[in-house]
Amino acid sequence: MKKIAHMTNELKDWLTSTLKTGVNPEKIADAMIKKGFDPIFAYSTLLKLVTKREVHTINQPQEPYVYEAPKVVQKGNVIKTSDREIKVLMKIEKPYILFVENLLNPEECDELIKISKPRLTPSEVYDPITGVKKTVPGRTSSGAYFRLHENPLIASIEKRIAEFINIPESHGEDLQVLHYKKGEEYKSHFDYFPQNKLETAKGGQRVGTILMYLNDVESGGETIFPKIGLSVTPKKGTALYFHYGNNKGQTDRLSLHRSIPVIAGEKWAATKWIRQGEITARF
Ligand code: PD2
Ligand code: ZN
Predict the structure, then answer these.
(1) CB 239 within 8 A of CB 104
(2) pLDDT exceeding 70 applies to what percent of the chain?
């Protein structure tokens, strides 16, 4: 069978962001070869990316991302849930981003931090090539997971998020609290998965992320969207919702983002990743 010896823009983006999170280039090359890439092409492409030399891509074989209004759009500028009003502070259309206040109240932020402290472990990422979770130098925070409805606080936040974004709780992954100490960061990445790593029982592709800020950070710790030049300063109780997956199964490359290093103080945040479909097998 003829080996693959061309690079799409999508694959180039993936390789660049994966390399930045610290995955060993040799492992990436091995995985590319297993997937049918020509070995010399795989190694030389990775070498060029590592040494920042030009990598030629073929014309995009995939269609450009088609923007579809996420369901939250139907809700206006003050989003009413059964227990509060969430105010929209900022909207961006491409990629779709909402910045809101009052998703969490100060007591909920403090309680989330308190219950996370005893169970923090080093944050991991899914290796986009192997699909296995692992720690990488590009993500230096620690985190704590909470099972769906694990306690009344988590359950009420999950209910509120579902009402906010108008997507059922069953599409939400387990909530994760993140802690960044001085110097800690999460380098540029996409929250969605490569197309060949999707599992229906786990809800298929990730289509959106709710990122909740649990404290004010003295300096640094902003969430950056480098492709659109956006920098969001963490503020206790506010949240970002970004939506990057449509009903055609496409994903939006403009949603590339990172958390820059904390310069002074510490950063606490919580994420809820949303899948296209219902999660029927939780892990
Ligand atoms: O903590 C953040 O600001 C951040 C930035 C980018 C978190 C994530 N991504 C994530 O958890 O996916
Ligand atoms: Zn992310």
Answers:
(1) yes
(2) 94
